[in-house]
Write a structure and sequence with these properties.
four-stranded antiparallel beta sheet; 2 helices
C-alpha cells in the first residue's frame, strides 16, 4: 500500500498539472482567436469611418447626428468683436461714472450683458442688456 501511495501520488499530481496546462493553453488560444476577430472588426470599422470622413470633407456631406459649424474661427472672432462693441456702446450711451470698469457677462437671447463694476468692491453697479445691431441699451433685469 505504501508503495502505491509513494508512486501513485506523484503521478496523479503530474497528471493534474499537465491537464491544467493543456486546458489553460486551449483557453488562451480561444481568447486570442476572439481577440483577433474583434481587432479585425475594429480595423474594418476604422477603415469604414475614415472613408466616410473623406467623403464628408470632400463633398461637404454631414450626417444627421453631427453638425459642422462653418468657419468657427470666424464666428469666434465675430463674437469677440460684438462683445467689445457692446462695451463701447455702453460707454457711449450710459451716463459716465468714475472709478469703474466694464465687463461682458455673456449673451442672452441675442443681447450682450455688460456690467459696470466698481474698482474697489468689484460689485456690479449697473447691468445693461445691449443690442449690438441696433445700438440700444436697457437696464438688465432677469
Amino acid at each position: 500500500m505504501r508503495r502505491i501511495v509513494k508512486i501513485g501520488f506523484p503521478i496523479v499530481c503530474i497528471a493534474i498539472i499537465a491537464g491544467t496546462f493543456i486546458l489553460l493553453n486551449k483557453t488562451t488560444e480561444k481568447i486570442n482567436k476572439n481577440k483577433m476577430t474583434k481587432d479585425e472588426e475594429m480595423i474594418a470599422d476604422n477603415i469604414f469611418y475614415e472613408e466616410n470622413v473623406e467623403v464628408n470633407t470632400e463633398n461637404e456631406v454631414v450626417n444627421e447626428n453631427t453638425t459642422i459649424t462653418p468657419n468657427t474661427e470666424e464666428a469666434k472672432a465675430q463674437e469677440i468683436d460684438n462683445k467689445a462693441k457692446a462695451i463701447e456702446i455702453v460707454k457711449k450711451l450710459a451716463p459716465p461714472l468714475t472709478n469703474v470698469y466694464y465687463t461682458n457677462e455673456g449673451n442672452e437671447n441675442g443681447l450682450y450683458i455688460v456690467a459696470i463694476r466698481n474698482n474697489d468692491t468689484k460689485i456690479p453697479n449697473i447691468i445693461y442688456a445691449v443690442d449690438v445691431e441696433n445700438e440700444k441699451i436697457e437696464i438688465y433685469t432677469k
